[in-house]
Amino acid sequence: MSDDLKDSQKKLNTFTSTGIKLMRHGDTLAKLNKGIPTPVSLQIAPTEICSLDCKFCSVMNRSYQYVFDWEKLKDALDRFFKLGVQTVEITGGGDPLLYPQINELVAHCLDAGKKVGMITNGIGINKRLDPKLQSRMTWLRISANTLDYRDHLDLPSNFNPEGTLGFSYCWTENLSTEKQLLRVKEIADNNNVKYIRLVPNCLDSNEDMLTKWDPLLEPMAERLGHPVFYQPKNFGSPDQCFLGYIKPFLYADEYVYPCSSTVLNSEADKQFNSNFRWFHYSETERIYSEPMSSIVDTKRCEHCVFVPQNNQLIYAINKHENEEFF
Questions:
Q1: pLDDT tens digits for 279-302?
Q2: FRET partner for 23 with CA separation of 20 to 30 A, picked from 16, 50, 52, 210?
Q3: What are the extents of the domains in the chain?
């Protein structure tokens, strides 16, 4: 394996949710083996409102009406905190910087001792997110696709020097160019950005991934070098779905979903469709006190990007013959 590929694999496992991080949570897996689910990382999409209309948006058919009431969201957070959540990822939906109480949200999580990360297009970040809070966050990922629609990226003015500032760029057919990606790389090199995650459009098919985008984008990432790495998207359907027990996704409609990739399934119609709702946040304690079962009929999840993670959880939860031998 070349040094470039080794570096890309390391970045994939460090800066994405589809790597092997789950293997570092042995205590959580041990509890699952005893039938005790514990949420570790909570994802929150507090609003559907966004300042851009990206061509690759996986929730382009959302209603734009849901904005989480702050008092209810605070209640939801506290319920998950009591169950053991360690980290909070604030994401979309829409763009979280447009959530009216974004500062209150970040501060509430930080003051509760939780590590906080955020995914955003960055527009207006220094007006909307208190620089004092920026300095306390663990990581921040900015969508560099903002440059496809504006002439500049807004970067944080006071981000935690010990945290991780990263970019993501989604390759969009008939819009993206290598020249544009070079521009992104130049900005990253000049601003201590630790990685640029290059991804294909998740709305495309598995066949497109294998025949069009992997052959184009993986060599491009290697050619451009650090900090660019390519994250391939491989879709499938797990036999069962348990990921939501340890990484629940709380949406602006007040419901918890199995994961963030339900929007990619054909039945979802490019939105967090109510057909994929798992439970209302007010039922959190009940869900985590009952015996675990597969969260969703996985035949409906043909675009799952968490098949390896679910397979690990399936093995951790169920007893297996000769499991002592490996």
A1: 999 999 999 999 999 999 999 999
A2: 210
A3: 3-14+38-317
Chain segment 40-75, per-residue pLDDT in tens: 999 999 999 999 999 999 999 999 999 999 999 999
The pLDDT tens digits of the residues spanning 302-316 come to 999 999 889 888 888
Give the class (CATH, top level) of 3-14+38-317: alpha beta
Q: pTM for this structure?
A: 0.92
Between CA 164 and CA 32 the distance in angstroms is: 30
